[in-house]
C-alpha cells in the first residue's frame, strides 16, 4: 500500500476545507464515514448479488485518478483505501495478446512513451473506431516493451498534484489487477470487485485479436469464479460462479453478446453515450446502425434485457433534471443503472454547479453528485472515490430494492 506524503497545500471551495496531502489515507476531501454495508444494486440474483455493498456502489474510475495517475497500481490501491467497492480498468491488447490496462490503445497521453527514443519509429497514424489518431498504440508493442514505460497524469493542468507522481508507476496487465484486488480484499476485510471496460473490440478483431476470448481466458486463469449463468453450470470460464466480483461493460454490444453467447457468467453492462452510435454497429451496418438514444427508450431497454444485458451505464448529464425517468424505465425493464463520471472540477460539472471560470477549481460537486445519487442510480463512477462515498453516506444507504 502507499504510505509516503508528497505535497501539502491549502485550498478552500464552497466552505469545504481541502488538503492536497499525499498520504495514502489522507484525501483531498474529508474522510468519509463508513456506511452500513447492506445495500444492493439491481442485478438478477443468479448473476451478481450486491447485497453486501452499500447502494449505490462506488466505482473508482481507473482507480483514484484525482490523486494518482490513472490505471496505476497506486491509483487502484488508493481507490480501495478510500472506500470504493469496485474499480474500473479499461482493457486493450498488446502485440503479443496480453490484456493491458490503459484508457485507450493510443498511449502518448498517459505514459512516457514519447520520451523513449528507442520507440520513436513506432509512432503511427491510425483510424480507430472511425477517428484518426496519431501516436503510439499498444498493439504495436509487446508486453515486455510496455513494461519499460511509466504512467503519466493525463490532465496535468487540472490535476498538478497527481502529476507529481509522473514516471513512478509501471503499466499493469489485467492479470495484475486481479491479483491486486484479491490482496486488497484480504487487507481490508471487505468484498471488492472490478468493472472492466472492453475497448475497441471490433478494431482489435480486425487485427486478429478476439477480445472476448482473451478476456474469458484471463478470468479463468485468475480463478475469479465466473462460469456459466445457469444454476450450477460452467461456461468457458471453467470455474464455479461463486465469487460474483466482476462486471463487464462496453460501448460495443457485439462483444457483450459474444461473451454471453459463450456462456460467460459475469453481469454485463451496456455503456450508452449521449450522441452517436456504437462503433461496432457503424462498422457492420453503416448508416443503419441504431443510435445510442434508441437504447434508452422503454422498448430499447426491454430489448437489452432480453439480449442478456444486466444494466446500462449512462453519462451523468442524462440523469440531471429529468433523469429519474431514465432510471425508472431501466429498473422497470429489470436493468441496473450506472453513471459516469463524477468529477469535482468546474471543467466537468454542469454549468449550474460551477463556482467560477477557473476550470481546475472545485465547484459545487456535492450539489451535483447529490442530485445524481438522488435519481436512484445503482452505481457511480468517480475519479475521487472518497468524495463519492461521502455523498452516498450523506444521502443514506437505500438498502435492498431488487426487481426479482
Automatic annotation (TrEMBL):
Biological process GO annotation list?
glycerol metabolic process; lipid metabolic process
Q: Which InterPro entries match?
A: GP_PDE_dom (IPR030395), PLC-like_Pdiesterase_TIM-brl (IPR017946)
| UniProt KW keywords | Glycerol metabolism, Hydrolase, Signal
Q: Which residues form the GP-PDE domain?
A: 56-392
List, alphabetically, the Pfam families matched.
GDPD
Q: Which Gene3D superfamilies match?
A: Phosphatidylinositol (PI) phosphodiesterase (3.20.20.190)
GO MF annotations, alphabetized: glycerophosphodiester phosphodiesterase activity
What reaction(s) does this enzyme catalyze? a sn-glycero-3-phosphodiester + H2O = an alcohol + sn-glycerol 3-phosphate + H(+)
Please give the GO cellular component terms listed in this UniProt entry.
periplasmic space
Q: Which superkingdom, per the lineage?
A: Bacteria
> What's its EC?
3.1.4.46
Q: Per the record's keyword annotation, is Transferase included, yes or no?
A: no
Q: Which residues form the signal peptide?
A: none
Family per similarity comment: Belongs to the glycerophosphoryl diester phosphodiesterase family.
Instruction: Please identify the protein, giving its name as recorded.
Output: glycerophosphodiester phosphodiesterase
Species of origin = Subtercola boreus
